[in-house]
Amino acid sequence: MQPADPTDPVAQLQALTQRIEALADRVRRLGEENRSLRQQHEQLSGERAALLAKNEQARARVEAMIARLKSLEQHT
Question: What NCBIfam families does this protein's entry cite (predicted)?
Answer without folding.
Answer: TIGR02449 family protein
